[in-house]
From TrEMBL:
It comes from Actinomadura rugatobispora. SUPFAM superfamilies: Composite domain of metallo-dependent hydrolases (SSF51338), Metallo-dependent hydrolases (SSF51556). Keywords: Signal. It comes from the Bacteria. Residues 92-429 form the Amidohydrolase-related domain. Residues 1-28 form the signal peptide. This is Amidohydrolase family protein. It holds the Pfam family Amidohydro_1.
């Protein structure tokens, strides 16, 4: 989905939505059935001599065969004269990354793809392009942008968060027929339902109106009746607990108001909800500054990415240490077995689509995930949580969305920044940034 969006609109989004063991080689096997619609390709591609991280764990060195946009075999794959051979030179091959919390605008999905993010999950956005996004992501035709799944219009109240999204959209009032409201979102193409539960940032900022507990339960129940997951925006522990008690499938941020005790963490675990921490949105631009000083990154940034990363988030005197508190909560949730999914909230608060995932991976490792667990949080874990059956792992039959990096990010996560190549639907991506 690519709604026409100016830089002003990007800024408006950014402010309005701002949040108050190496195993033995795998045996080669043939492509499974249940594959996406195939488009004719340029012939089989053999990516040889790569260390494979398959989305779950490191699998040792081997090759990956790509046929018609899909992974056909992994492991000891003998080269044939029919193959075009790409020599991986012992680099590490990852599944294409999935950013689980973005907001899309013109050019954002192309920016994402150039940094190895081959799939984006939009957590509130303009529904205009959703049918087209759905058509595109089912195809294995050549693509110059990441695939998109989206909540479309989120569920919030008049005067509630987000305050200035840059366009008008329907909101829930006391008179709203909630089942109808959710049915309208599904009809617009929403792949899941985003629910806003936000009663305002910490004082002295004023409180915000938000959904009542009853409305929250009814929205989530309606989403489930329509076969959609419900993902809830909360930033506070009490609201996060209210969301999971009401049946939320996932939380769009980790809570960073207070450190959660064992009871709260256990309750989220029992509820079976996943959490998309988005720690990159509470580092107050530190991760962005780090990217702008990294020569593995800067040659590939588009002007829009540079512009977004250079934003100085407005200071909030006396604000709590959101990053420290949020990271402590991620550590506890992960230790308790709550699925952790990587997401950036780009383009909010000095995050840019695609490249900021490289910041979030670092935050997740500092919060206590192993590098492999952080990479899983950006690949196989979200694929499972959101039911994306054709991607998220390097396995026969899945879409050939792949990222090749120098070094070994399963031991040093920052190696994920050293991107050597990206393939989308089995085709190499031109990483040259657009002029403007
Ligand atoms: Zn967001």
């Amino acid at each position: 989905m690519e709604p026409r969006t100016s830089r002003r609109r990007v800024l408006s989004l950014a402010s309005g939505l701002a949040v108050a063991a190496a195993a033995s080689p795998v045996a080669a096997s043939r492509a499974a059935a249940a594959a996406p619609a195939r488009a004719g390709g340029p012939g089989p591609l053999l990516i040889r001599d790569v260390r494979v991280f398959d989305g779950l764990r490191p699998r040792g060195r081997g090759s990956v065969l790509v046929v018609d946009g899909l992974i056909a075999a992994v492991g000891d794959v003998p080269a044939s004269p029919r193959h075009r051979v790409y020599d991986g030179g012992g680099r590490t091959l990852l599944p294409g990354l999935i950013d689980c919390h973005v907001h899309a605008f013109e050019g954002s999905a192309a920016d994402a793809l150039r940094f190895g993010v081959t799939t984006e999950l939009e957590m509130f956005g303009d529904p205009a392009g959703l049918p087209e996004a759905r058509r595109r992501r089912r195809s294995t035709a050549p693509a110059r942008r990441a695939d998109l799944w989206s909540a479309g219009v989120g569920v919030t109240v008049p005067g509630g968060h987000p305050l200035q999204p840059g366009w008008d959209f329907p909101r829930v009032t006391a008179d709203t027929d909630i089942d109808r409201f959710v049915a309208d979102r599904v009809a617009e193409g929403s792949d899941f339902v985003k629910v806003i539960l936000e009663n305002g940032p910490p004082p002295p900022r004023p409180p915000l109106p938000t959904l009542t507990g009853d409305q929250l339960r009814r929205v989530i129940a309606a989403a489930h009746r329509h076969g959609r997951r419900a993902v809830v925006h909360t930033e506070k522990l009490e609201l996060s607990l209210a969301a999971v008690r009401a049946g939320a499938d996932g939380l769009a941020h980790v809570f960073w108001d207070v450190e959660g005790g064992p009871d709260g963490v256990a309750e989220i675990r029992r509820a079976g909800a996943f959490v998309i921490p988005t720690l990159s949105v509470v580092d107050w631009g530190a991760g962005a500054k780090d990217l702008l000083a990294d020569d593995r990154i800067t040659p590939w940034l588009s002007p829009t990415q540079e512009y977004l990363l250079a934003q100085e988030p407005p200071d909030r005197p006396g604000r709590p240490d959101f990053l420290g508190i949020g990271s402590a909560n991620v550590r506890r949730l992960h230790a308790a077995g709550v699925p952790i999914l990587a997401g950036t909230d780009a383009p909010v608060r000095a995050n840019a689509n695609g490249v900021s995932m490289l910041v979030e991976l670092g935050h997740l490792v500092r919060a206590g995930l192993s590098p492999s667990a952080a990479l899983a949080a950006a690949t196989s874990v979200p694929a499972r949580a959101f039911g994306l059956g054709d991607r998220g792992r390097i396995a026969p039959g899945l879409r050939a969305d792949l990222v090749l990096v120098d070094g070994d990010p399963t031991t040093d996560i920052t190696d994920a920044r050293a991107i050597a190549a990206v393939w989308k639907n089995g085709r190499a991506v031109d990483r040259t940034p657009p002029p403007e």
